[in-house]
Amino acid sequence: MARTTVKERAPRQDNRRSALLDAAATHFADRGFHATSTRELAAAVGMLPGSIYYHFPSKNDLLVAVYDEGVRRIEAAVERAVDGVDDPWQRLEVACTAHLEALLDGGAYARVVVRVQPEDAGDAADDLIALRDRYEALFSGLIAALDLPDVSARRALRLLLLGALNWVQHWYRPGRDTPRTIVRRFMGLLARGETA
Amino acid sequence: MARTTVKERAPRQDNRRSALLDAAATHFADRGFHATSTRELAAAVGMLPGSIYYHFPSKNDLLVAVYDEGVRRIEAAVERAVDGVDDPWQRLEVACTAHLEALLDGGAYARVVVRVQPEDAGDAADDLIALRDRYEALFSGLIAALDLPDVSARRALRLLLLGALNWVQHWYRPGRDTPRTIVRRFMGLLARGETA
Amino acid sequence: MARTTVKERAPRQDNRRSALLDAAATHFADRGFHATSTRELAAAVGMLPGSIYYHFPSKNDLLVAVYDEGVRRIEAAVERAVDGVDDPWQRLEVACTAHLEALLDGGAYARVVVRVQPEDAGDAADDLIALRDRYEALFSGLIAALDLPDVSARRALRLLLLGALNWVQHWYRPGRDTPRTIVRRFMGLLARGETA
Amino acid sequence: MARTTVKERAPRQDNRRSALLDAAATHFADRGFHATSTRELAAAVGMLPGSIYYHFPSKNDLLVAVYDEGVRRIEAAVERAVDGVDDPWQRLEVACTAHLEALLDGGAYARVVVRVQPEDAGDAADDLIALRDRYEALFSGLIAALDLPDVSARRALRLLLLGALNWVQHWYRPGRDTPRTIVRRFMGLLARGETA
DNA sequence: CATGAATGAGTATTCATTCAT
DNA sequence: GATGAATGAATACTCATTCAT
């Protein structure tokens, strides 16, 4: 009688916290960290501004939480994509596609990782840098498997690709391109084995 | 002689305005537009906050002025670089190097163009977009001269290169690399004539 | 002894309440009433902020409880000290010493009585004033037993002594002085019987 | 004919700043530092809360300014009072009276010095302590001139008197007593030359 | 005997901007 | 070519407190 249904136990869960996280992701991705106020965030989830601080100790920490989730999602997408693929260039290509899909269609979390600069997080800048590095290490691994002449070429390829991929958000218009076709084109421009 | 202050007397013109512009460029490039307050800018040039408004009607307009100067400088550098070079791939390479030099060693104005997102300018976002497009057109011209199969390949190359180049600021450490070596490496990864 | 937690089991009664009271005493004494937040108090005893309100209806009431305990403790110390002493000046001196010991070495409760101003308690200011008066009456009794010329001299002596004693906390450095030596010196400065 | 009167030059002076300082003194003295909000202060002088920060960089600095003025005023009053008085005990008595007058009738600035605890000023606590010490040094000088047996007696007398005097505000009711009569009574309780 | 989740009002402070002088 | 003095609105954040569970 007291509880309306047996499921009553769980629902009081932390879905306000995650609603808040979602709103933060969207706003940070779309307008930037500094251009987003805690009021906007609160309004977006129907809280009062002060109530945010029940869930997160500061706006900075909220950013770190979003960023962390963003990195986690891109990593997961990339790992899922390369799973079962054997050819090293093929693995790199599907990884790039997954990366780009995460950035363009994959929701706001991933976009935050590319849009927000670590230094915006103030004290927590180092946390963001560590997260970013963790992801780049995953990419380094994929590139290490290629038959490239030396470490310099590997580093150059990693930075060329990640730069180009992360910049896509600045000009991407859905419909005209898809993540897959963009990556196809980018990879097509590369000289595979016979690099200088 | 009588007065001890070393205040520069010579450049009679409005060097207050350009000092302000310089300070804005540095701050916007280093910390971002929203993270820079007009007070900081004023303090940096020894003005009172209100005095900024004698020179510029708003903080947004100040950004537009900086951005405009930034684009102007990159354009000038690129044009100077390609001048007298004939081979299309060679022209592209020196252009990329000039672009990267402007970004990395060329002072704050150019960095603002890459760091600040047009939407940060509010009303004036369109002005910034127009400026960015103007510059990209210059780049498109250089790429059009290459022997690439179709318009898609040309577009892909432009976006790949600009993305990779503009991303460099996120990882560049002076000493280890130079703009020239970075561009050499990037170009070396590309399949020249025989692109797919 | 199965469980590793050292949690005291014995004092069955509401030792959470008294832990809270202790924390409040310490914080109010050290930092003042307004400078102490209920969150700090809760954190100090490992509660959540809301849980305070199970034990006390408001922060003000918490202050009253601490203050009450503080007065009670000073009273008890003074009464214990004068017990068995006969000479009136001697009684006054040991009372002063007990008062000062309570203030300086006697824990936070007593210090709150001297540090916190009644008006800080808002509604409950009158409660604090009543408590303070109750204690001063005890002191008046001791002074009434002295061979002083008139009521004015008695009042002056009471206020001189209490003022000087209560001010000691502002300059006291343990080691250099002790409550006993301070009181000795103060009493030594007084003209005993032959007051003007 | 531009200026309405020759006096026009001065009046735009800093009288808003000093109105603000006055309001701060009154509020800090009457209700304490933490219990006074910047809003109240601003409202008291008809400013908006933010406008305070044109005049003072922080609430703490405002306190320091008030405190400084308070010490200055007590010092001035004491120095004025002892001027022309020769007998050392007489000098001490008029100094005490001046001190007490400053505290009780002399406006809020002096009261702040006694009411607010240095630690309330946060960062600026040391500034307040330095000011308080400066004033106590003045008092030490007056006491050094007395024919007291040793340095301990001098120190004890200084602390006894200052304590008693500063505590007066807690029980003083105008009308019943005056600073002069209170000091007379206090001094009358002291054993002059023949101290133990 | 409490907690989890919030509220609503308030905190000090900062913002871009204005405008008479 | 500014300054001095503010404005008005917003900022991130903290407060004591509530209450269903």
Q: What value does the average pLDDT of chain A take?
A: 88
Task: Just name the CATH architecture of chain A.
Answer: Orthogonal Bundle
Helix content of chain A: 55-70%
- Give the CATH level 1 class of chain A: Mainly Alpha
Determine the strand fraction of chain A and express it as a percent band: under 5%
Oligomer: homotetramer
CATH superfamily of chain A: Tetracycline Repressor, domain 2
Instruction: Tell me the distance between the termini of chain A.
Output: 76 Å
Total domain count of chain A: 1
- Give me the number of helical elements of chain A: 9
Structural summary, described in words:
Four copies of one chain form a homotetramer. Chain A has 196 residues and is an all-alpha fold. Chain A has one domain (2-192): Tetracycline Repressor, domain 2. Chain A contains nine helices and no strands. Chain A is elongated, with a radius of gyration of 20 Å. Chains in contact: A-B, C-D. Chain A binds chain B through residues 31-32, 34-35, 117, 119-120, 152-153, 156-157, 159-168, 170-171, 182, 185-186, 188-192, 195-196, and chain B through 31-32, 34-35, 117, 119-120, 152-153, 156-157, 159-168, 170-171, 182, 185-186, 188-192, 195-196. Chain D binds a DNA duplex (21 and 21 nucleotides) through helix 3.
What descriptors fit this protein?
homotetramer, 196 residues, mainly alpha, Tetracycline Repressor, domain 2, 64% helix, disordered N terminus, DNA-binding
